[in-house]
Each structure stands twice: as C-alpha cells, then as structure tokens.
Amino acid sequence: MKLAAALAVTIPLASCVQLPTYDIVVYGGTSGGVIAAVAAARAGRSVVLVEPTQYLGGMTSAGLGATDIGNKRAIGGMSREFYRSVRRHYDAPAAWKFEARDEYRGIGLKEGEDAMWAFEPRVAEELFERLVADAQVTVARGARIELDGGVRKEGARIVAFESEDGRAFHGRVFIDASYEGDLLALAGVDFRVGREPNARYGETLNGVQVQHATKHQFQVQVDPYVVPGNPASGLLPGVSAEQPGADGSGDAKVQAYCFRLCATDHPDNRIPWPKPEGYDARNYELLLRNLEADDGSAPRHPQIKVDGTLAPWHPLGMPNAKTDSNNNGAVSTDHIGANWSYADASWEARDAIVAAHECYQKGLMWTLANSPRVPAAIREHVASYGLPKDEFPETGGWPRLLYIREARRMVGEYVMTEHECRGARTALRPVGLAAYTMDSHHVQRYIDAQGFARNEGDVQVGGFPPYAIDYGTLLPQRSQCTNLLVPVCLSASHIAYGSIRMEPVFMVLGESCAIAADLALERGVGVHDVEYRELRARLLAAQQLLE
Asked: 0.90 cut: is pTM over it?
C-alpha cells in the first residue's frame, strides 16, 4: 500500500484568466469521467472536465468497441443511454459506408434490443463530444496533472490541483475518473499497485497464479534462450530470469497492457501495417518459435484459427468492415512485463512506456504480415488487414491510447473482493452493478522447471450473476479526504477489479459519483455523510440498476 474543442468551452492558461471555483471538478475524460461531468451539469452544477490528452472517451473511443460487460441487462442510467445512442446512429443507413447494415456479421447488434454494443472509435468520440456540448460542460484539454505536489488541501479537503502548464482547478467536490488514479494519490489517499496475497482478504484467485494460468498459455515447448538449449547465451526479450513466486502470494506486478487495434480489411480504407522505427527482430523470436513449433492440434478457439493454427490476435467484427482486436495466445499483442512501473511513473517515463508498447505491437503486426517464418495462412490473413484511414488520423490510424487495464486501486471505505463477485458477501449500499468474469491478463513470462517459456497471471473465472458495488468503494478513508469520489480506480482487490473494470461500469459509477456529489453539496455535507437512503432514491430516479 502507498500513502471537441469546437464543441465545448476550453480552459485557457491560468495566466490569461482568473479561473473560477467549480462545484465539481472531474479529472480524467474517460468514459466514466465524461458521464460524471455531464450528469453533474444536468443537475445544474458548475463543472469542469479536465483531460490530460486532447480527446474524450478514454478506451471507449480509443479502439475498445467490443463492449465487455457479461450481462448487459445490468447496465442502466446514462451508461445505457450512451449505448442506445450508438444504436440510433447505426440504425441510420447513412452510417454504413464500407458495408451495408444488413450485411453486418460482427458482434453487438441484435434485432429487438434497444442498444448496440459494438462501434467504431470515431463514432464513440462523436457521441461523447455531443454529450458534453449539449450539457455545456467546460472542458480543459491537454491538462496533465502536476505530479510533483500538484494538489492543494486544507485539512482533509482538496481545494485545487494544478496541471503541468500552470492551470489551477478549484472545486468543492472532486472526482478522480482517470485510469491512473493520480489525483487520489497526490491527495494522500491510500492505494495499491499489483496483486494482494490471497490471505489478505481470504480470496482464492488473487496474487501469483501459476496453477490457474491455463488461458493464452504456451501449448508447446518453446525454448527461451537466445541460442536454443544454451542458458549461457541469455534470455530472449520478454522472458524473465526470476521465478513468479508461490501461488497466492502477493507482488507489485501489473497485468499486461496493449493497444486495442481498430483494423480493417476493406481495400479502400486500409493502410498496410507499418514497420516501426527501431524494429528489432529479436523481440519476436519467441513468437516465431511458438508459431513454428505449433502444429495446430492443441484445443483452441476455432473462430480464431487460420487453417488450423491459432492466429496470435483476436479481431472482433465492428461496423464498416473494422475490428476491435485484442490479445490472443501465448505471444500476442500484450506486452507482458513491460508496464510494472507505469502507475507510479512520471509523465515522461509513462510516455516512454507507451512508446515501447507501440513499437512492440506495431512490430508484432508487421512481423505477422511479412516474416517468411510465419505460417503462410496466418501471414496472408494478417496482411489482408491494416489500419483504417478514417480512424485516428493524427496518428496514422494507430489507436491514440494504451489500454491501461489496471494501475492504482484505491484502498477506501469498502474493498470489493472475490467474495462479492461470487455472491458470498453482498454490498449493502449499492451504486451500480458489475457482471463480468473475474479476469486478469498475464503478468509475467518465466522459465518453467523443464526449461521452457511459460506465462503467469491469467485468470478467467465466471459463472456468477450480476452483483452490487458498494458506495464505500468510491470513497477514500474519511481521515484522508472528505470531498473526493473515485469511479475508475475504485477500492477493490486485484481480482475483483478484474471483474469490475469494464467501460460500461465506469460510466455507471461516474454517474453515481456525480449524483452523490450533487447531493453532498445540496445538503452541505462531505461525501461520506450523504444519506444512502436519499442517494438510493436519486440513483433509481436516474434509472440506475442496483439489484
């Protein structure tokens, strides 16, 4: 533990204007942050949405178009309103440029449903920009929080925080909706990075997971040494010389990140996979050895095989002949072990980590599409795709955000654990529902007892119904901060966070935070002293689903 610029008002530099004190300051223009800010504005509050980049929507508008939730009936309020707006967009024939609506064979569109759960990144961004414009939310873009003492407090209350470029944001209630949890950390709120030991909360799926790590695992024996069979030659990139530790033991390591690739195979919209500057073939030797050793006979997911061999990416069909593509297999788009220092890093160090992930993943796709060592069927399959010309034009079609699956997790008034996920314990002050499998991507790659490469950390355990998220998970400990709410880096164990950390849930919790903040301001109390019975009534009036 550790102690559209044209569509919305843009905050100028502090030297140009005296900034006001807002009722509510939202840090992080993620999907949850946008919804929190819009909900606050709709409640009549003065609000500013402070976003470190130039873009709104977080991962929802950065390639994660295949909406994960588990049970979509668990999503209500403004979150469901967003997915209904997606449906209305794609119900219009004009939305379909590269395929006809009745020819769509991707995911997320079912007749008779009121919402749609798959979409192009640019469509999600347009919808978020429309939300903040319609609600007249003030947006401050390019405002990365100052990580060196950037938060001002009076006692247990945040008064303001500053951005790197000198802007100061004063408020009465603050919402940290960032993926990193920088505001909560700078405010002196307890948090964790990494995995708790199972013993801490009496869990079974937390900590190091060698036994359960059967998914996205090596199915064949792959030599991890530069010179096969010769440990003295050194290890291939991406393989650690350290052993993972005992099952269930805790560590400070973080599940892998990747970019969610929006790709297309439509020839009129396709940019061939670029070969990155600094490409190093050694980074893909483990991938190539795995492909060369794999005869395709191991049980796999047939829908992502090419001529019987597992393709090391997982493209899911999105509208207009596009994909949302995720990690798939033992060596794929996840850059395992390259992100452990991200959560606590400086902005410059984070930029370097993001750049390393981009170089790795671009090189991976270029290798799959061009290397003669890749089986021909896979090579031709991957080469038939590329980056879309009409997405992320400022980065040549490459997704603008790295998928920060997990960084800091607050240790707040209530900690969600495996017990809530499984239904063994029930939250008494629900502010939303979660419904996804307890899920973690791999954390590290090591050498097993037989001397071959092995992955550790992947857990996928589900089979339970939707469950309630407690109000206390949004609240810091009272002694540490009394005017802060946290809908993204909320208070949960690593394995419970793996179930909760879905974009629709972040939107649900963002709205619940805004409603709680509005109620606290109306009653003149801290966020911890909001009467839950009154909060519950307002959440239900907003069509949030709590049970």
From this structure: yes
